[in-house]
Amino acid sequence: MHAPDGLLWLRDIGRRFAWKLDMAARLASEEATESLRPKDARSPCGETDVRRMPL
C-alpha cells in the first residue's frame, strides 16, 4: 500500500529542511573551530604546524 501524494510531499519537504539544518550546523561548527585555532600556526622552533593550519 502506497502513501498518499500529500504525505510523500510532506516527507520530501521534511528531508530537505533536515538537510539544510545539518549543513548550517556543520558550517557553524567549522567556523567555531576556526575561531578557536591560534592565528599564528608556527611552532616555537620556526616550523609550520600543519595540524593547526586552516584547511
Offer a concise description of the structure.
By secondary structure, the chain is mainly α. It is built from one helix and no strands. Residues 30-55 are annotated as: Disordered.
Topology:
Layout: H1 5-36
What would you note in describing this structure?
With 55 residues, this protein is mainly α. Helices cover 58% and strands 0% of the residues. The model has no long low-confidence stretch (mean pLDDT 75).
Radius of gyration computed on alpha carbons: 21 Å
Number of strands: 0
- One letter per element, helices H and strands E, the order comes to H
Question: Total number of helical segments?
Answer: 1
> Main sheet?
none
Name the structural class.
mainly alpha
User: How would you sum up the global shape?
Assistant: rod-shaped
Spans of at least 5 consecutive residues whose pLDDT stays below 50 are none
Ends apart, CA distance between termini: 49 Å
Helix content: 55-70%
**Which percent band covers the strand fraction?**
under 5%
**What is the averaged pLDDT score?**
75
What labels describe this entry?
55 residues; mainly alpha; 1 helix
